[in-house]
Design a protein that fits this description.
By secondary structure, the chain is of the alpha+beta class. The chain has two helices and six strands; from the N terminus they run E-E-E-E-E-E-H-H. The strands form two sheets. It has a four-stranded antiparallel β-sheet, covered by helices on one side. A two-stranded antiparallel ribbon has the order 3-4. A hairpin with a 2-residue loop joins strand 3 (40-47) and strand 4. It starts with 9 loop residues before the first strand and ends in a 6-residue tail after the last helix.
Length: 128
């Protein structure tokens, strides 16, 4: 993903976020969201790229995805609920979009001070 300096469309995520459950990690090559639900929901999101901050993000309640597994076999899956939210969040990273890009104007104002601190600590673009 662009956030780690690799321009390949490869997604690895762990719905539980538990490193002990690494066998549950989902790995997809060239994932593509092929359908979004019309119904949306707003929930809090955070991101490891932006420590100690979060905000409300609107996402589709369900999505349909096509991708390839590591063996090159095409896969299709419908994600709902929390897993749909996680997938959309991680998918955004493949396009260089981060959750703060999806915050409302009010939401951006709420995290502005923390973003400024991160820029001061790590520089524009997050370089160390």
């Amino acid at each position: 993903a662009p956030q780690v300096g690799v321009n390949k469309r490869l997604m690895v995520y762990n719905e539980q976020g538990d490193p002990k459950k690494w066998l549950d990690e989902v790995i997809m090559v060239n994932p593509k969201i092929v359908e979004f639900s019309d119904s949306k929901e707003i929930d809090m999101e955070g991101c490891l790229s932006f420590p100690d901050m979060s905000g409300e993000v609107e996402r589709s309640k369900w999505i349909k995805v096509e991708a390839f597994n590591l063996k090159g076999k095409k896969m299709k899956k419908k994600y709902t609920g929390w897993e749909a939210r996680i997938f959309q969040h991680e998918y955004d990273h493949l396009d260089g979009v981060v959750y703060i890009d999806r915050l409302s104007e009010e939401g951006r104002k709420e995290v502005e001070t923390r973003v400024d601190e991160l820029i001061q600590d790590f520089g524009e673009g997050g370089q160390l």
